[in-house]
Amino acid sequence: MNQKPIYQSRFEALNCCILIPTYNNEKTLGSVLQDLLLYTSNLLVINDGSTDTTETILKDFHEINIHHFEENKGKGEALKHGFKLAEDLGYEYAITIDSDGQHYPDDLDIFLTHLEEKSADSEILLVGDRNMGQDGIPGKSTTGNKFSNFWFLVVTGTQLTDTQSGYRLYPLKVVNQIKLYTNKFELEIEIIVKSAWRKVKVRNVPIKVFYEENRVTHFRPFWDITRITILYIWFVLVSFFYIHPRDTYQDFRKKGYKRFWKENIIKSQEPAHKKAAAIALGVFVGILPFWGLHTLLVFSLAALFKLNKVVAFLFSNISIPPLIPFIIYASYQAGSLLIGRGLAWELRPEDFDSTADIFLGLWQYIIGSFALAGIAALLLWIVFYFLFSVTNQKQVVKP
């Protein structure tokens, strides 16, 4: 009598399956599937047009749901097809695992435990954290992962330590509703970014990883990194000009000024100097002469310095239309002082009657705007630092 797989009852209770996209991994595929069958029979394999003996190997696994592509379409296409097929089969979640043997089946317990403990009113997407700093991890993988982690933080505001692991848990109803355009390795980035934009809690969970020295990988460094870079460039534009402003505006409108200030700033657990720095950064960027790029700059710098992006963005809106003429005028006058021309209280058309005068005036304005931005930011940091320091002390002594 066959013994029931170790986690079969948990997989069934959660309506969860394991999705394995595979392409030319004949050396490891069989053992990977045999190991996974010890834990559950809810397996779905997408053979992405393999040209080795993959199809022959899969014939020995009659208990597994298998789908074959006639030609190689890319990991992204295999995953998209697998997600739809899994939901059609009645599953609500899918754990993806690579077929190259680098992942450990016993780590399934970590994904299942988090899924069992999640709240009913929110969705989660889990990404395995391979601890890329440990010995034995290829240097190229570590560098690429750090690059992806940083830009994921910039475009979503969520900090992950591993954004490229293929060992993941996906909520199928969410994923299958997202319009996905990529079809290679970058699809895994596209999904987690767009899921985070939909308020899905994207989180890392610790996993083990085994890197065999001569393991088969189909990741092509130049082309795949190029596609990932282009994808992040697009995400930066969308997030800075739509997603971040939309989310900030919705949060601010929902709470109102007083509640927003109280909950997002006063009661924030950040130290006083970081709260003040977020405000100072927002004002600094808002005064700079990069009109149309303030949102891009403030979110990038806030992510770089690990400051509150929402607060920084709100204060960068100092350059709203009613204040723009005053900011430009003050910047121009500050520049006049810095280049030794003295204050010119009146701006007359005859002051700009040549190309040289126009360029000099523009240079004067640019220099002045940086000086004004720096002075305003420093003064505001000092004021709000003391304000938040006093507020934090009152919160500590409050019974």
From TrEMBL:
Keywords: Membrane, Transferase, Transmembrane, Transmembrane helix. One of its GO terms (molecular function) is transferase activity. Pfam families: DUF2062 (PF09835), Glycos_transf_2 (PF00535). Residues 262-394 form the DUF2062 domain. The chain crosses the membrane at residues 225-243, 277-304, 311-332, 362-388. InterPro entries: DUF2062, Glyco_trans_2-like, Nucleotide-diphossugar_trans. One of its GO terms (biological process) is protein N-linked glycosylation. Residues 17-175 form the Glycosyltransferase 2-like domain. CDD domains: DPM_DPG-synthase_like (cd04179). PANTHER family: DOLICHYL-PHOSPHATE BETA-GLUCOSYLTRANSFERASE, GLYCOSYL TRANSFERASE. This is Glycosyltransferase. It comes from Salegentibacter salarius.
